[in-house]
Amino acid sequence: MSYPDLYLLIDGQRLGAEGRRTVPVINPATEEVLGQLPLATAADLDRALEAAQRSWPVWRALGPQQRGRILRKASDLLRERADAIAAIATREEGKPLPEARMELMMSADIIEWYAEEGRRAYGRVLPQRIPGMRMTVVKEPVGPVAAFAPWNFPLGNPARKLGSPLAAGCSVILKPAEESPASALAIAQALVDAGVPAGVLNVVFGVPADVSQQLISSPIIRGVHFTGSIPVGKQLTAMAAAGMKRTTMELGGHAPVLVFDDVDVDAVLDLAATSKFRNAGQVCVSPTRFYVHEGIYEKFAQGFAARAKSWPVGNGLEAGIKMGPLAHARRRPAVAALIDEAITKGARKLAGGEALPGKGYFYAPTILADVPDSARIMNEEPFGPVAVLQPFRDFDEVVKQANRLPFGLAAYAFTNNAKRVNLLGEQIESGMLGINSFMIAMPEAPFGGVKESGHGSEEGIEGLDACLVTKFITES
């Protein structure tokens, strides 16, 4: 299976390794080098900025209908190329091929949804105050956007970062993750092939701190969209604030799951295992802190452990595999350190807790019970295939535990009590709440958090609005 050549996409041109430093792209399941990725020079970034500035008025002037036709064509191209692109994503990031294909289809849906929603950036006419005066409010594209996407959803994250600004009429400079470059380039190439003009969409790679500093500090950039860790998000927000730039920050979480004693335990466990071990737990909204009512706690814990022990782990290109490796070498010791520290503080290891032998960055699905609040893993996002469990007795206690951390991206709860459902909706502090479901991400719904998990939303009408500014006009 061949791996595509890697390049920078700047002003409609592919720029390869010549004259540029390169870094290897590693298959996390086999540790083989897939290819060499060229990194942008300062001159490359300046060229991308100039292209974004020059092309923005051209793209904006096309209007939402023509932009929408191009985006819809891109979504069709992605679906036509689904098998090939999904295989690239699996080789780069490690997730099982069915997961990668589902992610590709979701990416196509995101771009298609924005193709339609871009036509609905409505303004309004205000009531007349004086005869002959007309007052209107209009929405306009914010301008060139710098977007930064992580590796864990190598197709979906670029689609989110590109769909909303392009639909709004903005130009974009996208810096995807260096771990999964070909996946992001495949998304960008579909948009280019569909007719996005040269310079409107630029893709660069490089040392993250250097790229973000040069792009965000440029007066050309008017908006900054970032998905990643809380510390980096805070740094980028501070940079953007120096130029009063619009920001959308989708940062980390530590999602609580509240399981009450009126549920079908096995049904909840089947959903929980699938969601927890999806993408080896490398999901910002992955369910992690499981608070289970004491009446069903031990049954739930043992059932979760049984599922973890039997979960098929291996190379994501192989049939029947349900969990691939961690995405890069440094993830295994990071996850292991959190697990080991929890065990020293009294946690019970019911399953997993070790790296798997052989090639690849594989780690066993892990279940820890009776994890104390003092353990780091109860306070720091593990970003790996580990679930931590605690029992609870009453409603107020568990809501307090769920809201204990300074994060508020996603939360989940399982109960059949209607009043309790309403109270959870009122009292849980998170940007997204799944009740009796782990499904919280879809193109038409806002995706974002509260507290230190960030601000603003991607997807939904909120994602489009993040790329628009409001202008008030009076005429007399």
Domains (count): 2
Strand content: 15-25%
What is CATH's topology name of the largest domain?
A: Aldehyde Dehydrogenase, Chain A, domain 1
Total number of helices: 13
Output the strand order for the largest sheet. Answer: 14-15-16-13-12-18-19
C-alpha geometry: globular
Span between termini: 66 Å
Helix content: 25-40%
Name of the top-level CATH class of the largest domain? Alpha Beta
Structural class: alpha/beta
Which stretches are low in confidence, meaning pLDDT under 50 for 5 or more residues running?
A: none
> Which CATH architecture of the largest domain would you pick?
3-Layer(aba) Sandwich
Please count the beta strands (DSSP E, at least 2 residues each).
22
- Rg is 23 Å
**Biggest beta-sheet profile:** 7 strands, mixed
Average pLDDT confidence is 97
Oligomeric state of the chains in view? single chain
CATH superfamily of the largest domain: Aldehyde Dehydrogenase, Chain A, domain 1
Concise synopsis of the structure shown:
The protein is of the alpha/beta class.
